[in-house]
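Quick one, T. Sequence first:
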Amino acid sequence: MAKQLCVERNWCSEIVTVVNVTRKGVAEPLTGNLEEIGERSALVLTESPLPVASRVHIACREHVLRGVTKSCELDGGLGYFVEIEFAPASRWSRRWFSPLHLLLRRELELRLSA
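Structure tokens:
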């Protein structure tokens, strides 16, 4: 699995569109599953690779997160785990977007400690 930028991410599952914004300004959309999300980064599982250092937009329902790919690693049976670091002006907040399936890190820690 991809190296994690931020251990403060929450587990989740939601189909999203990842748009690779090329240097020529061309947008290349790719469907993926949002696997983890935090204030500053996300992990998306896709069927195709995305180059490291690519500018990307993650379309989550009516919201868009902007960032840069930090890693892209193939997991044989699943696809590509793409690590995305959000731009400073594009931070995730549960108040404006909550994935359909979301397990908050705090809740997981409580369950594991019980």
